[in-house]
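Key idea: predict the complex, not the pieces.
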Amino acid sequence: MARGIRRLGLAFFLPTLSAFAAPLASSDEADGFGDLPVVLTASRLRQAVAEAPSAVTVIDREMIEKSGVRQIADLMRFVPGAIVGYNDGNRPVVTLRGGMSGVYASGLQVLIDGVSVYSPLWGGMQWEELPIAVSDIERIEVIRGPNAAIFGPNSFLGVINIITREPAADGGFRVEARMGGDGIADGAGRYAGVAGGWRYRATLGQRGSDGFETRPDTQRYLFGNARAEYRIDHTDALQLTARWANNRKDLGDYAETGVSNQYPHTAFGHSADFQVRWTRAQSADDEVWVQYYHQQSATQDRVTIDARLQIDRVLNGISPVLFPTGSAFILFPSALPYTVDLDYAVVRDGIELQQTRRWGASLRSVWGLETRRDAVDSTRLFGTRDERTAFLTRGFSNVEWKWSDRWTLHGAAMIERNTNAKAAWSPKVALTYEPFIGHVFRVGSSRAQRTPTLFEKYVNYYFDTPSYVSPVNPLVAIPPARLQIQMSRGGPNSESILSHEIGYAFSLPNSRLSGDMRWFSDRLGGLVGQINNGGVTFINMDDVYVRGGDLTLNWLPRAGTRLRMAFSKTKIYANDQGGTYSISAPDNTVSLFLGQSLAYGLEFSANYQRVGAMFWTDAGSPKRPIAPIEHLNLRLAKAYHFGANRAEAALVVQEALGNHHAYYLSTPKTIASRLASVQLSLDF
Amino acid sequence: MRGLFLKLRFFCWLLLAVAGCRVSVALGAEPITVRLLVSEGNVFAARTATQLETLLHNNDIDVVAEPATGSQKSRRLVVAIGAGAWRKAVDTLGPDVALLGVMVPQQTLEQSVGRRARLAGVILAEPPPSRLLNLIQLALPYRRQVGLIAGPQLTSQLGRIEGAAAERGLHLGIEKVTQEAEVGPAVERLVQAGTALLALPDGTVHTANTVQPLLLISYRNGVPVVAYSEAYLRAGAALATYSTPEQLARQSAEMVIAYREGKGALPIQSPRYFSVGVNQAVVRSLDLSLPSPEDIGNRLRQMKE
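Result:
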């Protein structure tokens, strides 16, 4: 009922607003001299790599368009040190500083248009469930290190900020389609226009594929998103964003060894979110905004498992001598299918305020407050019908003091209180020095926390099996039992990271060359691991040291040519009590990008990444690294112009270098192979 | 110490001499009364009027501010600030009343040819295009492909602007538009090849409605906008040269004084005094390295327009 009232309220609110404030009028009164709306506000401007107090990678629109990727996660391959793996065809995993966090990569904060989409249940990001098309993205800013002081809790190993395209920067219709091998069937339609003083942009699309040949991972993902802006006057604006998605994906294993951990099945999900933001901007450095956001999602996942796997574990627990590992498969030669529901629903609501202000030529500040409530409902995972919640309150402040032409001091801190962790503060300090124009040195330290996920904190995952009588030996009967899979005993506390870095960024406009490099040293404490103590539970276990460096170069040797190189080197030192951290980072990664304009309006691009040998911490046995992987995407496109209309046709070859293991070394196999597809788009 | 005393005495004599000259000029000139007409709703024009009023008072010139309505026949000199005020003045003033227009768009001026009152002078709203081209040449020397969107107001000047750009080694790409809705697509086309976008005053191209797509699309493509007003700079242009209300008031006051001294009708002038502004937040975000606005301004004033 309350939700219904909220919807009604919004429905009344929008037309009312349109009525009281007319669109900004134009006249011949020497246009452009008087008041104009402040367009490029602090929240719209991208981080300048050379000026930023952190190591930042900006994946711009040109790179996005020419990358040829169909999964947003694959764009992360441009980031030095980033690794993209595929747990299965519809579950990409992105991580920085190695695969320390496994499939949920909970150390990475991900935001869309400034709002966290970090999963409160699992942590990390469900990349396959982003309700936006690749073409909806304006740019992606990646902060390659902790930055909780600005971006909030869980900005732990890094922050990925996805910024979608502004309604005002588009106009008219766009339709795009992509068809190719492995059942690739993607499509999207978009319209951007102006109505009643609102500038808006709406996309409706689908992503579909049959995934890896070796996995049941077919996916059909329908999504829609809309973004609208209303200029109340030259300083004030109202922005609305809404997204919706409906997901149908196959999960499970093909049981190549005869025993299936999860039978192939189909999971269904849907999500909806909206965000409303009011902004007042007097200039690019003088802005205040307030926003409310709501996100909700629900997943229906009925998993059929072979109960022998659990029975074997129970029997072995009773007497390893009488029932050595594998006994259950002798006593029960045929599978014992058992279906459990792994359904869950997540709701997030939050309010946030942020102000950017300049206090003169040398001082600039940003401060903000946020309060957020996360709630997860899952009878199966939590063993209760009650929802589990986390309530976050945080405040932060960031000051940038440029006390001379060459020196700038950045200081920031966040204080957070989360009902599921101790109150914590996350400071950050950085000093930049620009001895010559275009050459900036940076030294900085930062501390951050990762709050335990609701799963880690409250999991009570069990299921009750019926009685089983062995067909081999009828004397052996398994009575009805409760099989406890995972059980939290109070839950872990926050993980922590202390990071130090030294960096250098340069820009040589004469040579059209820019780049940045850095060395970092991170100390991670209390990493959450699992122990088997009558059911798996989570505790803070490992301390890990990570050291490394990276280098990014951008070169535009001539008009129509763009070259980019990113290199990283990482070394992890760990005792590996709770996870196989020490081999979870590749020794090095290399990314190369070439964009080249050719004759006859052709555009060629190549996107290459080599990831050294590494092990995903939850990739099972054997615990040894998968071989180095080389990814190569090739794209050849041609644009056609029909008056004001534009069409483009492109041929894309993904994984042009052939097969490799994308996540697991043994079963379940995820072997990526060469894939060709055709992209068509029409703007009119 | 004695040297300092001598210097002070010299300066005192100098000040007295200058004051004497000023008084003699004021005494020798015919006293006039100035009425200020300001376009309604034009904040910039209102600020200019306030500054001008102060300057005229300081020069012993009586000022009466009235709305741009009613009979104006008794005024000796009317200063109309803004396009609306100018149009009202030329429609209502008789030929016996002198008129000085300030911030008059070129197109508005051309439309009122033949209907104007006795002209004391005009300060155009627009800075000379060559000044903005000089600015690009100075501040963005590696960006020689310059895009320009031309609406109906600019069309007649295009040949002259193209010539001025070519003289400076700039390659001008031009997109012509006839309505606001065409601006966004025009910017999209220009930024594909352009490395800087030049904004010249045009009532169709640069309005409160078009500035959003124009600035966002150009910014998205890493193309800085070089503009002609402080408001544009604040909105998101990377750099601009513009005349502040104080600078326009100063030029206006000089024209009023010249008129009082009987120097007759003055030619139509561009804004003579100007500033250079840099939007540091935008420039930083675009990874541009620019000299200080003061340095650019000083060098710009020395360049031929």
